[in-house]
Amino acid sequence: MIDNLLNISRRTLIAAGGLGLLGAAIGMRPSFAITADDIKKRGKLLVGVQADNPP
Predict the structure, then answer these.
(1) Fewer CB within 10 Å, N or C, the chain?
(2) How far apart are CA 3 and CA 10, in angstroms?
(3) So where are the chain's domains?
(4) pTM, 2 dp
(5) Which of 44, 25, 26, 24 minimizes the C-alpha distance to 34?
C-alpha cells in the first residue's frame, strides 16, 4: 500500500503543481480599499462588525 502512495506519475505531479500555481495566482489578487477622500465625498462612514465568531 505504501508503494502505491509513493508511485506518483509525472502527469499527476505536473497537474498538482499547476493547481498550486493557479491557487497562488488567485490568492494574490489586488485588494480593494477605499481612500479617505472617497469617505469624505460620501459624507458618512459605514462600519461593519463580524459578530458570529465566539471569543
Answers:
(1) C
(2) 16
(3) 2-42
(4) 0.42
(5) 44
DSSP 1-55: -HHHHH---HHHHHHHHHHHHHHHHHHTPPP----HHHHHHHSS--------S--
Residues in the chain: 55
Is residue 8 scored above 90 in pLDDT? Answer: no
**Predicted confidence (pLDDT) per residue in 20-38, tens digit:** 999 888 877 776 778 888 8
Which amino acid is residue 5, in one-letter code? L
Q: Which residues contact 39 (CB under 8 A, 6 or more apart)?
A: 45
